[in-house]
Amino acid sequence: MFKRMLKSYDYSLICAIILLCSFGLVMVYSSSMITAVSRYGVSSDYFFKRQLFAFIAGSVLFIIMAVFPYKVLAHQKFQKVMLLASLLALCALFVFGHVAGNAQSWFKIGGIAIQPGEFVKLAIILYLAAVYAKKQSYIDQLLTGIAPPVIVTVLICALIAIQPDLGTAMIIGLIALCVILCSGFSGRTLLRLVVMAGIVMLLVSPLIYLNWDSIFTPVRLSRFESLENPFKYASTSGLQIVNSYYAIGSGGFFGLGLGESIQKYGYLPESHTDFIMAVISEELGIFGVLFVILLLAFVVLKGFYIARKCEDPFGSLLAIGISSMIAIQSFINLGGVSGLIPITGVTLPFISYGGSSLLLLLTSAGILVNVSMHVKYTEKKKKREPVLPKESKRRQAEKTVYL
């Protein structure tokens, strides 16, 4: 049985994840070595070592989740503990949280920064997948089937938004929306949800109007202004986008060569986190960019394919949630780097520097690999079962009833 399970793992998916993380480690070192020395006064491999540690820890979690039966995660007691821990962690940030990037979103323990919001993404996916998998028999009942998980999701998004970390709150909301839309309810229920959402927006709009200045601060509005014409604000809000354009343009088709980026010499802020793709483009050209995008696309499409093949509602929704998370984060990051959407501070999955993000992604990827293994193992098991003719099946059934 163990050998059959080993043969059922999707090694192409595992290899794609390993390639992304390995490439990310190389690019984190290349993009951060100047920043580490000149800006933070530490050794050139400081960020690389921290990312390597996160990769090793994440790999252990990846292996555990790839082997651990994913169906256990749907247990009601686990769900309650996970939700309670998420809510307590988010509330504790307002008392013990560390401020970074204008948001009180971090716990700092012994020099290690942990962002609970990253792990809440997976918690929401697990929660929604488990709840909606159990509600399949009455999924079209709005008040008992759809509404309760939506209320919990909105509460968690609100706690993250007031840190304020609108980027993470938006991502969690979009991930939840993908899982909810794929939960199996009918078109009529979808129409009722749209109407209900419209009514809620009308009720909330006066509150938004009254708190307009606190929600849409000058810093947030400047991101939209710089999006329209970044060169006009090249010394202020458009600094990152303009230097990102310079990096992408100077890289051209073949790139300047690994480690040869000019923009990482203090011109491009956050070159090893949010804007690491700009450095990849500058150093490795279009080939480096396509390498990353194609691998990310492969992981996402593979995840949706696994969701489609999985007969277990919980496993299917898990695969949809995890794939959606990777796709949404990739789109937001690449959109910000290329100037298609405002900058939100979202990292590029598996590539950008960020220990919390890498731990979350590798844990999620382990669950996805686990679901894939169970799908493939079930298919092989069905093929091994002897197919009886219709007459034999009828006689076998009559014999069973008689006995």
Automatic annotation (TrEMBL):
Its chief place of residence is membrane
Enzyme Commission (EC) number: 2.4.99.28
Q: Where in the cell is it found?
A: Membrane
This entry carries the following GO cellular component terms, namely: cell division site; plasma membrane
Record key words, sorted:
Cell cycle, Cell division, Cell shape, Glycosyltransferase, Membrane, Peptidoglycan synthesis, Transferase, Transmembrane, Transmembrane helix
The protein's annotated catalytic reaction(s) are:
[GlcNAc-(1->4)-Mur2Ac(oyl-L-Ala-gamma-D-Glu-L-Lys-D-Ala-D-Ala)](n)-di-trans,octa-cis-undecaprenyl diphosphate + beta-D-GlcNAc-(1->4)-Mur2Ac(oyl-L-Ala-gamma-D-Glu-L-Lys-D-Ala-D-Ala)-di-trans,octa-cis-undecaprenyl diphosphate = [GlcNAc-(1->4)-Mur2Ac(oyl-L-Ala-gamma-D-Glu-L-Lys-D-Ala-D-Ala)](n+1)-di-trans,octa-cis-undecaprenyl diphosphate + di-trans,octa-cis-undecaprenyl diphosphate + H(+)
Q: Which GO terms describe its biological process?
A: cell division; peptidoglycan biosynthetic process; regulation of cell shape
Membrane topology term reads: Multi-pass membrane protein
The record ties this protein, via InterPro entries, to:
Cell_cycle_FtsW-rel_CS (IPR018365), FtsW/RodA (IPR001182)
Q: Which family does it belong to?
A: Belongs to the SEDS family. FtsW subfamily.
Reported function:
Peptidoglycan polymerase that is essential for cell division.
**Protein name as catalogued:** Probable peptidoglycan glycosyltransferase FtsW
Q: Which organism is it from?
A: Bacillus nakamurai
